[in-house]
Amino acid sequence: MRVINFNAGPAGLPQPALERAREELLDFQGTGMSIMEHSHRGKEYEAVHNEAISLLTELLGIPSTHQVLFLQGGASQQFAQVPMNFLTPETSADYLMTGVWSEKARDEAKYYGQSRIAATTINADKRYTRVPKQEEMQLDPAAAYVHMTSNNTIYGTQWHTFPEVGSVPLIADMSSDLLWKPIDVSKFAMIYAGAQKNVGPSGIVLVIIDKGFMAKGSTNIPKIFRYSTYAENNSLYNTPPTFSIYLCRNVLAWIKSVGGLPQLERWNREKGELLYGMIDRHADFFRAPVEKGSRSYMNGVFRLPTEALDETFVAEAKKAGMVGLKGYRSVGGIRVSMYNAVTVDNVKTLVAFMEQFVKKHG
Amino acid sequence: MRVINFNAGPAGLPQPALERAREELLDFQGTGMSIMEHSHRGKEYEAVHNEAISLLTELLGIPSTHQVLFLQGGASQQFAQVPMNFLTPETSADYLMTGVWSEKARDEAKYYGQSRIAATTINADKRYTRVPKQEEMQLDPAAAYVHMTSNNTIYGTQWHTFPEVGSVPLIADMSSDLLWKPIDVSKFAMIYAGAQKNVGPSGIVLVIIDKGFMAKGSTNIPKIFRYSTYAENNSLYNTPPTFSIYLCRNVLAWIKSVGGLPQLERWNREKGELLYGMIDRHADFFRAPVEKGSRSYMNGVFRLPTEALDETFVAEAKKAGMVGLKGYRSVGGIRVSMYNAVTVDNVKTLVAFMEQFVKKHG
Ligand SMILES: Cc1ncc(COP(=O)(O)O)c(C=O)c1O
Ligand SMILES: Cc1ncc(COP(=O)(O)O)c(C=O)c1O
Ligand SMILES: [Mg+2]
Ligand SMILES: [Mg+2]
Ligand SMILES: [Mg+2]
Ligand SMILES: [Mg+2]
Description:
Largest sheet of chain A: 7 strands, mixed
Oligomer: homodimer
Bound molecules: pyridoxal-5'-phosphate, magnesium ion
Subunit structure (chains A, B): Homodimer.
Radius of gyration of chain A: 21 Å
Pathway (chains A, B): Amino-acid biosynthesis; L-serine biosynthesis; L-serine from 3-phospho-D-glycerate: step 2/3; Cofactor biosynthesis; pyridoxine 5'-phosphate biosynthesis; pyridoxine 5'-phosphate from D-erythrose 4-phosphate: step 3/5
Strand order of the largest sheet of chain A: 2-10-9-8-5-3-4
Number of helices of chain A: 10
Order of helices and strands of chain A: EHHEHEHEEEEEEEHHHHEHEEH
CATH topology of the largest domain in chain A: Aspartate Aminotransferase, domain 2
Function (chains A, B): Catalyzes the reversible conversion of 3-phosphohydroxypyruvate to phosphoserine and of 3-hydroxy-2-oxo-4-phosphonooxybutanoate to phosphohydroxythreonine.
Mean pLDDT of chain A: 98
Strand content of chain A: 5-15%
Subcellular location (chains A, B): Cytoplasm
Keywords (chains A, B): Amino-acid biosynthesis, Aminotransferase, Cytoplasm, Pyridoxal phosphate, Pyridoxine biosynthesis, Serine biosynthesis, Transferase
């Protein structure tokens, strides 16, 4: 029996994607071996690799100005790899600070060049409960790039309008909301995302990069760290994480089969409305810190009147077959991660549980 | 039906390790989700993670002076990460050149500091057919480290006696022979290995590092690239490739179950003797370039009298249920990779096929 999985990442994956993997785990398409036992230079694996790229391209409508790359090291490695490629001691990058992950991203920039905080929504409690408004941003027109976190997994905030940054290249960490709905990829010089929320298992990072921007990257860094190395070799310069890419392929094929990003957006909005509707009907009990305009459709956070009730909530939900609801270590409370593999029905089950929970403990 | 898989990497995995993964792919130990859907901070995953570390520690007899780390980015990222941590513009590292991978490793060092060739066995054809002898090495006693490739996957050579480097830290890329037999880990300041030959799928790198040596690493580099970051966080600083580590755990458990490294060494030596015995009995036909004392027990390379025969060999072997025998792109010929998952019987089947092949085409 599968449980309802609200984990923040690694997160639940669509069951059909996993079933497909199980089915052919020891014998991929009659080849007599697992896809993970195939050479990354063989035609069987290359077909999977290229299908993952073309599905992502199709689903997101990635323009031909941009290229899809597969990297490793988690989104955290991108925090360092972005400035390594695109920042020098003589240049400065702008960072839009909206949470823990923006902070960690900026921390890694200092080893390569200068950085500025172009906007921050940190409050007196050192927490973040919203994303900045356009007029709050103090953008440097000469910046090497602007870095943003599109969805703040820990604080449960999300950008619903992307910032206007003029001609400065915009780079977004979309680890926790890539593929939640259609977006205009052409606005971004680079998008990166650890796969383990919406796309696949941990151990694989998706990069979508503007080729012109990429060409400006440093060549005075090791080959393995240059985006151009991945681009020139179709992400096969060295051995990619083949099985992880295969699993992403399965998830992307599932997304296409259910109707693509327009359908996922409908489901994700419905899930968000269900959860936030319940929160707002019992706002004294489910205390949601995030400003309404910045609420995340991927991670809904709230706290109950006491920490003891938070714990009871998590424990009773678990008994009811729902796991992964504990808030992030440093934040506490409850976090409901509702990535693409979480169904509308799953959220209905949770919301019904919440209704009962208020009746019992409210 | 599973084929006999002589792939050089990603390579075949022990069937019991894969069957175990298939069995619990959608429901890990009754938790109602796949291990890849578990949080990397949850007790279920952490038990797997720690078991992988303790199995590796036990199998290799890793002393308490050393620590096991899990990294990403392939062995190729280690080529850069080693000098990033341990080389400065003021220091120099020694490289022992025994093949393509040694060359690539040294190429990445120049971005961080100086490097010297302390020995090379490159020949007039720009190939390598042996590893250097101790007396051929011109070691710099002030070197930051000595880097070596313990097994040369492409050229089919292997070190059978590790070099004596005095008090200089010795770093070995053991990507293609870690776990082939017991070794004395204490001789090495650091060992690294991409998992995809002897240990697991691609997308995970095992590092075994001396803690005192690690402590000397630069702190003027991004946190995500410091070995000490992985060490301080038990390789859970950011999200590790959880499913890949789980698969390594399954392979390590299988190694233990069959008798550990002494048993693997017996099998690997028997496999090597079978293959090289056949080669030597038909030395005019199976032309093996490697000097006998440097022959690899992991990758056996030879060429047939003509390239057309090489192709026929690969094609007929495939019909007989054996794949992965084509030599590396730049080298050609035949390569028989006989990692731990390849059984003695598999090699007997190949050798019988070779016998028939000489009769028919010799
Ligand atoms: C928005 C965001 N960025 C970056 C990270 C770090 O990702 P990783 O653990 O893959 O390095 C996370 C992890 O949860 C995240 O949510
Ligand atoms: C000895 C050795 N080192 C390094 C590498 C590169 O490994 P990766 O592709 O994981 O970067 C290989 C790949 O086959 C290898 O055999
Ligand atoms: Mg995480
Ligand atoms: Mg955050
Ligand atoms: Mg390889
Ligand atoms: Mg080699």
